[in-house]
Specification:
Layout lengths: L2 E8 L2 E8 L5 E6 L19 E6 L20 H13 L4 E6 L1 H12 L4 E7 L12 H15 L6 E2 L2 H11 L4 H11 E4 L2 E4 L15 H9 L5 E6 L7 H9 L5 E4 L11 H18 L1
Parallel strand pairs: 3-4, 3-5, 5-6, 6-10, 10-11
Antiparallel strand pairs: 1-2, 2-4, 7-9, 8-9
Length: about 290
């Protein structure tokens, strides 16, 4: 199943996307992780034959526009993009699939806008690591300093795509074949060297962080069919997330023996099967 390139003009910028199987009965918007892009779903999406999948490059990632000078990349702002793209596609209801940061976005949308979603599948992330209310001042200061500094941050360049792939594998444990898919979409060539397209502001701290109370309130509000796939060698190695998943009755959690980018590697077929089964069941009863 070959992908097609799409572009959506929403919220005053252009969002690039990859689309698979436009004739599929099940409508799915897919959200990638931090510093990844829509190619994150190149392995998994073609395996979900009943699904019409549109995977977005989030703002500042991949082929999408960067945000304006005075905008920021708070995770809740991305929810407006998902809804705007769904509106442009004419999807009143749809399923959402997310990995890592995209999984947290998917959870938030499922919690806050259940009338728009039929089901939500989250791969190796659910909630951000919480902070206490007392840490708020420090967090805001960190955001202000880092966000202003990012404007003049020097962007790393490479002599070849292979060098960039090696650097990406060092930054996050993943197979070179998986890294290459994301890296090739995330680079641009300038004067014979390869530079990241990613907006440097994405590496700055968030202005605010959720507390434990926020995390629990959002997850406990999920009322639609859901699946949380937690990778043992990914974020599943953090006891906070494992214990949190176990403590929430309305969350369907499954542990898999895999790394963080499991949806791109040898477990992709099994993950695609689990997710597609969830979506099929949800759509048949919605």
């Amino acid at each position: 199943m070959q992908s097609q390139e799409r572009c959506f003009s929403v919220n005053d910028y252009n969002l690039a996307a990859k689309e698979w199987n436009s004739g599929g009965d099940i409508k799915v918007l897919a959200c990638h992780g931090w510093l990844d892009n829509a190619a994150s779903f190149d392995v998994m999406a073609p395996l979900m034959s009943s699904c019409h999948i549109v995977a977005l490059d989030s703002p500042g990632h991949g082929l999408s526009d960067h945000k304006s000078q005075h905008a920021d990349y708070s995770i809740w702002a991305d929810l407006l993009d998902i809804l705007a793209v769904a509106d442009e596609l004419g999807w009143q209801q749809f399923c959402v699939l997310g990995h890592s940061r995209g999984a947290i976005m998917s959870m938030l949308l499922a919690s806050a806008m259940p009338e728009r979603l039929q089901a939500v599948a989250m791969i190796d992330a659910l909630v951000p690591m919480p902070a206490s209310g007392e840490e708020g001042v420090h967090q805001l200061r960190k955001y202000l300093l880092e966000y202003r500094a990012a404007a003049s941050k020097k962007i790393t360049s490479f002599i070849s795509i292979d060098e960039a792939v090696t650097a990406r594998c060092k930054a996050s444990e993943m197979a070179k074949s998986s890294a290459r898919l994301i890296v090739e979409r995330g680079l641009k060539e300038i004067d014979g060297r390869y530079h990241w397209r990613t907006d440097p502001r994405l590496t700055a701290a968030s202005a605010l962080k959720f507390t434990e109370v926020h995390n629990r309130a959002f997850v406990e509000a999920i009322s639609i069919p859901n699946l949380m796939l937690l990778a043992k060698r990914g974020l599943g190695k953090y006891s906070y997330l494992v214990d949190f998943c176990k403590s929430v009755d309305n969350l369907r959690t499954q542990m898999i023996d895999a790394g963080h980018h499991c949806h791109m590697e040898e477990q992709a077929a099994d993950i695609a099967e689990h997710v597609e089964r969830l979506f099929k069941t949800a759509v048949s009863i919605s």
